[in-house]
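Backbone shape codes
____________________
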Amino acid sequence: MKPLLTIIIAVEDNHTIEDVRKTVESALLQTSDKVSILAVGDKPVEYTKEVLSEYSEKNAGKIRVIYTDEKRGAGGAFNLGLRNADTEWIAFLNEGDALSKDFAEKLLETADKTGADVVSCASNSPENDTDEAVYNETEELDDFERIAIMCANPGELESKIYKRSIFDDNGLWFPERVSFEKLGVKRLALLCANRHEHTDEKLYFFAEGEKETELQDLYDRLDVMTYFIEECYKREFLEEYPEEVEFAVIEDMYVKTLFDYINITPPRKRKITFLEMLAEAITDCFPEFETNPYYYEKYDDEIKDLIELHVTSPYKFIKQTMKITEIDVQ
């Protein structure tokens, strides 16, 4: 039977070999017989190659292994996987994460029953708490309205299956050699979809602990979201979904970057130049962003007051936050 779903695994040597085994085995143990696995090593070390080759030899016809010829990050690994996948559906799996054994079976079943081209599930990530809540709140809306709201609240890219045509027909690719490569793509994929469905069963499990954010990661996030703005402009999503696209930029390019910078930078090392650049970036894109209804609803008054201070005077913002070492905006 020809597989329906390819699970693309990005292997970056960021975890232990035991974590890699856990990830690959969770894909191999899927109860559905309609699954193929494509493990993409991002120029892995020799020992990782040996382990991946071992799985390939023992599971011939079930798992393929390919490698990037240079370090391209998870974005490069997923892109190479997309180019080599030949099934109707695709899913993305990170090294270190794991799938429930019925991940593929449950989500393909939901897709078959509903005609959706994106199906999401619950996971152990706080980001995915929004999927179930938003989906339940939008059940009475039409597909256009639901997709719009899901764009503003996309959850995680990985805890979903996608019709491959969403990527092929719309020329969607991941930015490469940068952190936060999934930010824009997960929203663009939803905007390019026709119908989204959700199951509240917890079927995707992210690895515990996250890579610590560094200053270069924040610049990467700005680059990724610049790509997102350009793609939305090119595809006319700014006209179709103006409030949702604006909020995506507010949240991912601006708010998270601003407060991550505060959280990772000691007070006396915070640079006025970085804060000025960030204020200019958001006001140049969306000068009236503080009137966005999603922004207004999501953030509490304390956060909004700090943001207003930042865009008005980065210098006063630095003085105001001198004694603050951590700010939670979730």
